[in-house]
């Protein structure tokens, strides 16, 4: 039964399946069509700025900054400033289209490099791996670094437009061109923009910290695994693979956590900026709130904690403890000393994280595990063991397991890690070739049921999140359309100074939303680059220098390092695949709905404003921008239906293939698992064939 469950789970978590699952889980916060909805409005506003620049001109240079302007080139002419904004915007949209298309082409090549890397790992001897693998990883790293440059270039272009609009608004305030309520509105918008800049800075710092934490955990993984295996009790060889699986889940969790940090809505970053500000101006200790990187680091340990608990649970059957197998006759002690040391190691790692409620919760799980191990260690074969004590111990262990399951659900909800994850290739191969048990845990069926329920709840939560995103878009759609219609009805004589300022403020907001996504794009590729650089340095070095274990384990340090190399390359490929989906969407939207408008804006800027063709071009630009706005929303709704179809198909496949091979479970057991999973996710709201590995 265990072998069949393992085989089916592996087929459900092939590289292709995991790429698609990652895209599904990240889609509510990573779908670019949502962020491109304001783009036609941005272009239409620039068209209007060209139109109104034919109005009466005036100087904004009455009260200039002492050091001069950083972005405005012609402060003596408001018209010239408006044209400068249009020109910068035109360049930004052109650069975005060109660079995103290059990113799409670059990321399309990553799966081929991943395929070559996997073949080398699977089929090559050590010398071939040492010689050829770095070339394939280097190819992925080069793509990541090139894409960072491309994304940063576009981010800078949009930033220039935003800074230019902001400086123009500040100049108008200083020149006292408007007063009263309108002045307050503009000041509020400027303050909001400044807050977004602070939040972007906080996000940048968080991403740097996240990548440092990710790099450190990847570098420490080999040493942690070796220490664990060196003290492994006799006869627990199969458990080596389960513990290695826990390490793998930790690394997967921290990479997914870093990715989720980037795709999180901007309100999360704004909240972070506010917390930083509060902490700075307050003397109270800020231990109640956990920063996102610490949260990511703590939650990444959830799979490892579950795995260690499973090593204890396997000795509990039918309300009794299997003392015969748990007691080490040779060393005259229970084998729980080793399990205790694993809990202790995680506790030590958690102590490095800043104090917070979440840390206390994770430490509590470890401490309860340590206490259970210490109680089991008091057992002696020649002394009578209290049955009541046995019952209490089993209850404590079951409660600890249930709490760890809920903690894992919260971890998955926060990081966006898939509920079902694959075993690394070498581990799966060694397990498949081992005689006897396929898993150290005798609770494979219970674990499979938990993962099915977790998958169901995870996909449901993702759909709910996507539904809310689309509802928010539809709500904003009318507001954006109303602005376009209002602009279209403006006659030149009706456009007073306040109307111009209103357009500038709206343009500032719309351009800001598009720029935020380019910032995220930069961080995506920084993660890919960090993953590959760590593989090329520390992990590959470990593979070259690690000798075979003297303990003759079926799953050795070299196996683990090989799997680690695979996982790092796979995670890099997974993120590249997510970006490829995003870049494909952007290029499609840009080609169909933006670039014609950008070209029209270019023509409008070059035309003589006194000719009738100018008014016709202006009208045409407004109408096509309004149509584009609606078309993008239709694309969003179409993608939403496709997303729902994919989530339904994924769940049907998991249930169809995995539930079919599981024995029937008592209704109370099914309900218990369901309650644990739902409680965890509610808190979280806010093959065999080598080709399967690439």
TrEMBL record:
Q: What is the lineage of its organism?
A: Eukaryota, Metazoa, Chordata, Craniata, Vertebrata
Protein name in the entry: Uncharacterized protein LOC116223483
Q: Which gene encodes it?
A: LOC116223483
In this chain, the stretch annotated as Disordered covers 413-449
Which spans does this entry mark as compositional bias, Polar residues? Answer: 431-445
Residues in a coiled coil are 151-231
Print the keywords alphabetically.
Answer: Coiled coil
The record's section on PANTHER family has:
EARLY ENDOSOME ANTIGEN 1-LIKE, ZGC:162509
Q: Does the keyword Coiled coil apply?
A: yes
């Amino acid at each position: 039964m265990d072998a069949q469950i393992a085989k089916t789970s592996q087929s459900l978590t092939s590289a292709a399946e995991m790429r698609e699952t990652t895209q599904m889980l990240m889609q509510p916060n990573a779908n670019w069509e949502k962020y491109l909805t304001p783009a036609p409005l941005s272009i239409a506003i620039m068209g209007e700025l060209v139109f109104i620049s034919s109005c009466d001109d005036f100087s904004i240079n009455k009260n200039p900054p002492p050091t001069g302007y950083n972005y405005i080139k012609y402060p003596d002419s408001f018209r010239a400033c408006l044209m400068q904004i249009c020109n910068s915007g035109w360049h930004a949209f052109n650069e975005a289209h060109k660079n995103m298309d290059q990113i799409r082409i670059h990321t399309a090549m990553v799966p081929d490099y991943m395929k070559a890397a996997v073949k080398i790992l699977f089929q090559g001897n050590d010398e071939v791996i040492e010689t050829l693998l770095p070339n394939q990883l280097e190819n992925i790293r080069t793509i990541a670094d090139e894409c960072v440059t491309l994304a940063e270039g576009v981010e800078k272009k949009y930033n220039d437009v935003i800074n230019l609009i902001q400086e123009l608004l500040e100049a108008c305030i200083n020149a006292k061109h408007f007063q009263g309520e309108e002045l307050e509105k503009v000041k509020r918008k400027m303050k909001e923009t400044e807050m977004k800049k602070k939040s972007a800075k906080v996000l940048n710092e968080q991403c740097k910290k996240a990548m440092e934490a990710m790099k450190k955990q990847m570098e420490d993984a080999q040493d942690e695994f070796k220490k664990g295996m060196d003290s492994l009790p006799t006869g627990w060889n199969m458990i080596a693979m389960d513990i290695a699986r826990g390490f793998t889940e930790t690394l997967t969790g921290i990479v997914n956590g870093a990715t989720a940090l980037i795709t999180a809505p901007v309100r999360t970053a704004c909240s972070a900026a506010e917390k930083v500000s509060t902490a700075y101006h307050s003397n109270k200790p800020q231990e109640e709130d956990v920063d996102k990187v610490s949260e990511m680091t703590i939650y990444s340990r959830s799979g490892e904690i579950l795995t260690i608990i499973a090593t204890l649970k396997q000795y509990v059957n039918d309300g009794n403890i299997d003392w015969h197998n748990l007691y080490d006759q040779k060393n005259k002690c229970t084998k729980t000393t080793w399990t205790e040391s694993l809990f202790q190691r995680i506790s030590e790692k958690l102590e490095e994280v800043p104090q917070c409620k979440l840390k206390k919760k994770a430490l509590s799980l470890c401490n309860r595990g340590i206490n259970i191990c210490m109680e089991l260690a008091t057992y002696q074969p020649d002394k009578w063991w209290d049955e009541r004590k046995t019952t209490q111990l089993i209850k404590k262990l079951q409660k600890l397991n249930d709490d760890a399951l809920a903690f894992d659900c919260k971890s998955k909800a926060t990081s966006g890690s898939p509920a079902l994850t694959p075993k690394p290739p070498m581990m799966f191969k060694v397990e498949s070739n081992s005689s006897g048990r396929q898993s150290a845990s005798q609770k494979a069926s219970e674990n499979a049921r938990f993962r099915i329920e977790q998958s169901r709840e995870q996909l449901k939560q993702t759909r709910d999140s996507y539904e809310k995103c689309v509802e928010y878009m539809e709500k904003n759609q009318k507001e954006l359309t109303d602005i376009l219609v209002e602009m279209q009805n403006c006659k030149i004589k009706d456009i007073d100074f306040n109307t111009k300022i209103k357009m500038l403020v709206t343009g500032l907001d719309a351009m800001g939303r598009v720029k935020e996504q380019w910032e995220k794009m930069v961080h995506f590729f920084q993660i890919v680059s960090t993953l590959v650089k760590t593989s090329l340095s520390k992990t590959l070095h470990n593979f070259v220098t690690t000798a075979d274990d003297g303990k003759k384990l079926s799953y050795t340090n070299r196996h683990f390092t090989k799997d680690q190399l695979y996982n790092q390359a796979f995670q890099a490929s997974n993120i590249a695949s997510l970006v490829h989906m995003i870049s494909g969407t952007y290029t499609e939207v840009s080609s169909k709905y933006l670039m014609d408008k950008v070209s029209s804006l270019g023509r409008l800027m070059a035309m003589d404003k006194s000719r009738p063709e100018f008014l016709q071009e202006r009208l045409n630009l407004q109408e096509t921008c309004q149509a584009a706005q609606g078309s993008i929303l239709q694309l969003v709704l179409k993608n939403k239906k496709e997303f729902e179809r994919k989530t339904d198909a994924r769940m049907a496949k998991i249930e169809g293939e995995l539930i079919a091979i599981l024995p029937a479970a008592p209704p109370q057991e099914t309900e218990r698992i369901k309650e644990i999973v739902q409680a965890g996710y509610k808190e979280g709201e806010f093959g065999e064939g080598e080709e399967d590995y690439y």
